[in-house]
Amino acid sequence: MIGRSTGRAQQPAASRRRETIRLASTFGGGPRGQGVLLSHSSEMSEIAAAPRAQASDAELRFFYDAAPVLMGAVELLDDGDLLHRHDNPASNRFFGLPAGSTQGRSARSLGVPEDTISLWRGHYAESARSGAPVTFDYAHPGANGVTWLSVTVAPLHGPGEAPGALFGYVARDVTARRLAETALGESEERFRATFELAAVGIAHVGLDGRWIRVNRRLCEILGYSAQELAGLTFQSITHPDDLQSDLDQLGRLLAGEIDTYAMEKRYYRKDGAPFWAELTVSLVRDARGQPAHLISVVQDISQRHAAETALRAAEERLSLAAKASALGVWEWDLAAGHIYHSVRAKEICGFGPEEEITYEKLTAQVHPDDLGHVQEATRRAFDPASRQTSAFEYRIVRPDGAIRWLRAHGDTVFETRPQGAVATRYVGTLEDITERKQSEQRLDLLAREVDHRANNLLAVIQGVVSLSTGDRDPELRHILLGRIAALGHAHKLLAEGRWTGADLLRLLQEELRPFGLDQPGRVVLEGPRCSLSPPQAQAMGMALHELATNAAKYGSLSSASGSVLVRWTCDGRELDLQWAERGGPKVAPPRRQGLGSRILERAFEPPIGGEVTRQWPPEGHRCRIRMPLDQGAPAGPAQS
């Protein structure tokens, strides 16, 4: 390389010409100017001494000037620098200078770092010691970044002369090669990382089925070590029922019919247990295009396969259950707008088995009186705030004009999106309940007829009592008619509820209305919603009639300023009702138990199982009735 000027005299032209000949002779002009070393320093004297065997001075000079590689002669200076005696044009261009500009300059003056100068001097010294050229690569720092150079150096001396301070160099820019090597190394490292750290099994497999190279995951899947697999073939651990299919695909791959194939197959683990795997196979060819080896990717899908098997079994069970129960199955893909109906669902709606189902068709056949109800039920089903299974009944008018009652059960699938939960699918069943509805209508008609006849019977009983007693015992007639009326009130409420139960507040209102319920403050009712079973409602009706009749005759309701407070609690398991009179005449415990008291206490005996407690403080009669409710009796907010 280059060094600082020492002020020595300009080198004679003849001397420079001899050094150029020596340099050219030493490194030679290889093919296309590649700067290939032709001879060692031991041969230089022979070359210099045989000018007729070499090219002419002009030819060598042309080679030197035209060479695309860096060439030149340098002198080692005592201060550790390098002096450029002369360099070819390629060397000048490397430093960004015109031809001849580096001659006589030192490496330091050209901005070469000290560590680079030391590197060159070390290799010059090595060449001087060995008497042979030395080749090395290094990264040369420059203004435009690092340039990789491949350099060969050798001492320059005449025949019989010992190596001195003068050396020649030839350098080639190998940056592209180094970058390619680095990229190749990084690529190989990425491949190794991908191969070893992949979440699936990867293997290089010979054309005969031998495992050539396997990654860690494949060893984990199969339960073998890499050494153990090296002694096996894929055929030896493939389930026999799946082997021929695999070999058939492999044959097509080797014949060039396909480029790759994928299949699901069973392997045997080391412990002998079979498992399902997804296999993908590709073929690698050599430089001549001939098959070299296989790349196999193996993924354990045993869990997925088990889940799919379970799903198919569940679908078969669902299909059988739906068929046995005469249910139709439907699904509405809200995103795509597609509606699926099973064959049974189409049959229920009066559609053909191949007929396409649309939202417009389904909406058009809903009975006009039920359309709003169906649309509201659907709207609630799509509301992410409720997320409740919908169930509703409605009528349709089938294409043949028949009116059918249907019951739909549906559940909505929601997806979470940036804007919130969104309904994406609506899935459910459809049942034709026309026959059930017709039976219910007949039963309802029958129940109404029975209720009507029961009311008529009570009216007849009331008439018989009135006619039988006449004017002989008006008090007895009044008592009997009141108790029959109490039973009639309870019967009316139970009939309205189709004998499923009666609301306590309604029962109180019916029984106490004749005793001043409509007068402000006369009768006050406070308590939550509470439903009584038919036997409990009848017993409570009788008890309320006796309490109200007694209050009207002897208690607070016998006075214009008196009142009754009825307060109750109900938690769904027990009813606790308290009757409190006030503002009437002073009362005292009765001296004897009358018929009304006996009716009041016996009304709640088993099977009802209630308890009646009565007190007679001076300010007014008090009665407490505690009664267990039927399991599941509804309770609600306070009413008054």
Draw up the topology in text.
Elements: H1 13-27, H2 41-48, H3 57-66, E1 70-76, E2 82-87, H4 89-94, H5 114-130, E3 134-142, E4 145-155, E5 166-173, H6 175-197, E6 201-205, E7 211-214, H7 216-222, H8 226-230, H9 240-254, E8 260-268, E9 274-285, E10 291-300, H10 302-325, E11 328-333, E12 338-341, H11 343-349, H12 359-364, H13 371-381, E13 390-397, E14 403-417, E15 420-432, H14 434-469, H15 474-496, E16 502-503, H16 504-512, E17 523-532, H17 534-553, E18 563-570, E19 574-582, H18 595-602, E20 611-615, E21 622-628, E22 635-639
Parallel strand pairs: 17-18
Antiparallel strand pairs: 1-2, 1-5, 3-4, 4-5, 6-7, 6-10, 8-9, 9-10, 11-12, 11-15, 13-14, 14-15, 16-17, 17-22, 18-19, 19-21, 20-21
Can you walk me through this structure?
This protein is of the alpha+beta class. It folds into four domains: 13-179, PAS domain (Beta-Lactamase); 198-305, PAS domain (Beta-Lactamase); 326-432, Beta-Lactamase (2-Layer Sandwich), CATH 3.30.450; 439-639, Histidine kinase-like ATPase, C-terminal domain (Heat Shock Protein 90, 2-Layer Sandwich), CATH 3.30.565. It has 18 helices and 22 strands. Strands 16, 17, 18, 19, 20, 21 and 22 form a seven-stranded mixed beta sheet that branches. A five-stranded antiparallel beta sheet has the order 2-1-5-4-3, sandwiched between helices. The longest helix has 36 residues, at 434-469. The protein starts with 12 loop residues before the first helix and ends with a strand. Mean pLDDT is 81; it is low at 1-10, 28-55 and 632-638.
